[in-house]
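Appendix B, Record 12. Input sequence as logged:
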Amino acid sequence: MNDKPYRPNVGIALFNVEGRVLIGRRFRGDGPEIILPGLEWQMPQGGVDEGEDFRAAALRELWEETGVKSAIHLAETDWLAYDFPPYDGPSTHRLARFRGQRQKWFALRFVGRDDEIDPTTPRNGQPAEFDAWRWERLDRVADLVVPFRREVYREVARQFAQFACK
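Logged structural output:
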């Protein structure tokens, strides 16, 4: 039985006008969450500060990780969760402190231009997490992420299918 808590987290499915979602490629040496080569892609996501509104956290994380501010709210999921893979590194790392992440996912419509997207510039004192980005079909993203996140990504794809390209 794992007695560590889940880390409160938000995930963002940012849809363009064609119904594709923004994904970023995590830096190769970005940490133990990347466990298999070729599975570095993910949608933006991040932790929620104590007392922070979850929708506000989603917009903040989207901006911190991608530079995007031009987005409008479409929908959100109930709580979804995944467990982190086994970890025996420094006790200060989130993989050591938390069992996994408990997430609320937000579907947002991108209403800006692609040149607004800049994942490599650090913001709010946070290092850049992505070294590249692209638009992808929502139903394909689960196959591009690390295995421990796949079921959550499949559920996000199911719940947000109405906003995705067919």
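Residues 54-66 form the longest helix (13 residues).
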